[in-house]
Design goal:
The protein is an alpha/beta fold. Helix content is 36%, strand content 17%. It has two domains: 140 residues, 2-Layer Sandwich (Alpha-Beta Plaits), CATH 3.30.70.560; 199 residues, P-loop containing nucleotide triphosphate hydrolases (Rossmann fold), CATH 3.40.50.
């Protein structure tokens, strides 16, 4: 059979004998003419998305050779769930068995009760890890990204989209990495509000860059209050899309580099008061580049107060940013090399816009889900 007849089904259970329910579901699927089980991924235990009041899930992904249509396979999946006691009275409720048709070759469907590929597969590490084990080069038919890259964006976490929060996409990276350029182009293409880092509003910044270390605390508190004004939960409306050219969490990076211990103690106390009121991003795009390349751009854009920046400072920033991004758990994270962004090519921004639409939840991009993981 050709590749278009290879399907991937996710299986999960968090009630009763979880492993037996998964084994029984696989057996019932493969007893159907036209379905052959090729492989299944390791069974892993995962925390339920609905919260800690439920038992943990066992999950696996099955690779199937199919001579049925996608609709016929979906009907068989629903029949197996019903036979094994799956009920659908409450969303995100515990379940004896849950089967989800994730991919059916390169097939794309968007009907009221049937969507392929599964509209939340890119948000589920337990699905992507299973797919990676079976076929790490498998490409999402719509996102045009392989499952290994999609899995790396989640840092072993699982996310569910929320429509009741601001849809904030934050661009992170070094000074001179190109954050403002990218944020501006994305906001224009997505027709949403652009939030720019208030560099030119800070009266202390030129003096701090000139060596006035005693003003470093004033400078950081000025940035902190301005950014709080931009990103607090009351300033950003729920369900609306925003693009910012900075990530609020990097405030502590600069504070740690610029403040002495006494200043840092005071700054941290104020930061801790503001931080819980800040809207968290639903997606972070991390622009990476070498400190040398960033320094060259800083020189070219010729902001007077930046001309004293040294490469050693950028190297320290890079180390701290890499640590922050490596442990990032608040949202999916797309990592892009600035040198890969060729704005002379029309597809450069368009491809990234397409990626972003899968991670945000605004009225124009909402999809009705057939089933929930």
């Amino acid at each position: 059979m050709n590749e278009s007849n290879i399907a991937y089904v996710g299986l999960g259970s968090n009630l009763g004998d979880r492993k037996k329910y998964i084994d029984d579901a696989l057996k019932m699927l493969t007893q159907t003419e036209g379905i052959l089980l090729l492989r299944s991924s390791d069974v892993i235990e995962t925390t339920p998305l609905a919260g800690s009041d439920q038992s943990s899930y066992l999950n696996t992904v099955a690779e199937l050779q199919i001579s049925l249509s996608p609709q016929e396979l979906l009907k068989k999946i629903l029949d197996v769930e019903a036979a094994l006691g799956r009920t659908r009275n409450v969303k995100w409720s515990p379940r004896t068995i849950d089967l989800d048709l994730i991919l059916f070759g390169d097939a794309v469907f968007k009907q009221t009760n049937f969507i392929l590929p599964h509209p939340q597969m890119h948000l589920r590490s337990f699905v992507l890890m299973g797919l990676c084990q079976l076929n790490p080069k498998l490409v999402h038919p719509l996102m045009k990204v392989d499952v290994s890259e999609l899995a790396a964006r989640l840092n072993n976490l699982n996310f569910k989209p929320g429509s009741d929060v601001p849809q904030l996409v934050s661009i992170a990276g070094l000074i001179g990495a190109g954050k403002t350029t990218l944020a501006t182009k994305l906001s224009e293409r997505l027709n949403c509000q652009l939030i720019l880092e208030p560099y030119d509003w800070n009266p202390y910044l030129p003096q701090v860059y000139a060596g006035r270390k005693e003003l470093a605390l004033d400078c950081q508190l000025s940035f902190l209050t301005d950014r709080f004004g931009q990103l607090n939960a009351e300033a950003l409306k729920s369900s609306q899309l925003f693009i910012s050219d900075y990530l609020f969490d990097k405030e502590l990076i600069y504070a740690n580099l610029l403040l002495d211990q006494l200043q840092m103690d005071l700054y941290k106390r104020i930061f801790d008061l503001y931080n819980p009121q800040i809207s968290s991003p639903v997606l972070v795009i991390y622009l990476t580049d070498s400190p040398q390349n960033c320094l060259e751009r800083i020189k070219l854009r010729n902001r007077p107060y930046e001309q004293r920046i040294e490469i050693s400072f950028l190297e320290s920033l890079l180390t701290a940013h890499e640590e922050l991004m490596a442990g990032w758990k608040k949202s999916p994270l797309i990592k892009i090399r600035t040198t890969d962004l060729d704005y002379s090519k029309p597809d450069t921004v368009e491809n990234l816009v397409n990626q972003i639409k899968f991670y945000i939840n605004v009225p124009s991009t909402k999809q009705k889900l057939t089933k929930n993981f």
